[in-house]
Structures are given as C-alpha cells and as structure tokens.
Amino acid sequence: MISLSGTIGMGILIGSGQILRLCGSAGALLSYLFTGFILHCVVSSLGEMVSLIPESGALVNFPTRFVDGALGWTVGAAYWFCYAMGVTTLVTSTAILTTAFKSDISQGWIITGVLAIVIAINVFGIRVFGEVEYVIGFLKVVLLVGLIILMLFINRGAGPNGKVHGVDCECCRTPSARARLTLVRLEG
User: pLDDT tens digits, residue range 149-158?
Assistant: First the structure.
C-alpha cells in the first residue's frame, strides 16, 4: 500500500489539470507513457548495477566510480536538494490546495500546522510513522479511485446541468459542428 500510494502525490492532483489543459487527454497519456518508459529504463539499469555491485550509497558512488568524482558529488547534492525541497513543496501545495476552497485561514498558518504535524509524526518513531503512512496512503488510493468514478459519472451526464461530455456529445454529431470545433482548436 505504501509503494502504491507513494506514486500518488500532490503532482497528480495539482499538476495533471495543467497537463490536460495543455495537451489534452491523448497527449497526457502519451507523455505519461513516454516518461514512464524512461523511468523504467533508469530504474532497471540502476537495479542491474546494484545487483552487480551491492554497496551502500549507490546513487552517489556509481557516478563517482563509472564517470567522475565531480559527477558523483553533483548527484549527491542534487539528491539532497530534492529531498530537502520535497517537504517544503508538499507543505506549500497543501496550503494552496486548502485555500482554494475559500478558507479564511491564511496560508502561513496552514503551513505551520502541517509542518507541526509532520514533525510530530517523525518524533514518535517508526511505528507511528508507518501506521500514519499506511492510513494516509489508503485514503489517497480511495480518493483517487473515487475521483475517477466521479469523473466518469460527470462525463456521462451526472453533472449539475445533465450535459453529456465526450465522443457522443452534440458538437461531434454533425460534420459542420466538427469542422467548427476543429477550427476553434486550431485558432486557440
């Protein structure tokens, strides 16, 4: 559950809307497939190197061993920076997401509260951290599945105005409407 929920982050809730707006559903699917293929290749090659030379600190030691010491230091610094900024990015995006619902609480207080919760979870040890991670991961998976089902219902006409979206909508039934839609997409 933790590995599955680890792939569901704020990026899929906040960033996927912008990706869908910029390149559409087919473009988003192709970009996710292309990025997933590249990540699969990187992780597979890293797994091959780790099985050949098992040592701790492989992400820093492998560039040092196979390329150059400066590259190993740079990879280590980038790795540290990624994890150092990861918490701040998630806390800030949590504040942005919660204030999008017309909250009267300022973002500074939300950031302070979330950071206090994160620090408290880390103070109580690995058992509490594991339980909290499991529960939050389960809630993230349930939320994502629920959002997918809700989007399918809205797409089929369960929205507030009962309009059906998708392939069989009124803009795709006549050739002139399809031509106008194509022209609007090309101009926009």
Answer: 988 888 777 7
- pLDDT of 144 over the 90 cut: no
Tokens encoding 181:
């839609």
> What are the pLDDT digits (tens) for 69-90?
999 999 999 999 988 888 888 8
Cβ(122)–Cβ(129) below 8 Å? yes
CA distance 125 to 172: 57
Mean pLDDT of 95-107: 82
Token pair of 92, please? 């800030």
Amino acid identity of 124? F
Domain ranges (residues) in the chain: 20-54, 67-123, 125-188
CA distances from 32 to 2, 36, 38, 41, 89 (A): 21, 6, 10, 14, 21
Looking at the chain, the whole-number percentage of residues with pLDDT higher than 70 is 84
Ramachandran category for residue 166: left, alpha or beta (phi over 0 → left; psi -120 to 50 → alpha):
left
CA distance 144 to 168: 26
Determine phi and psi for 100, rounding to 5 degrees: -70, -15
- From the list 5, 184, 9, 6, the residue with the least C-alpha distance to 93 is 9
Side chain identity at residue 44, one-letter code: S
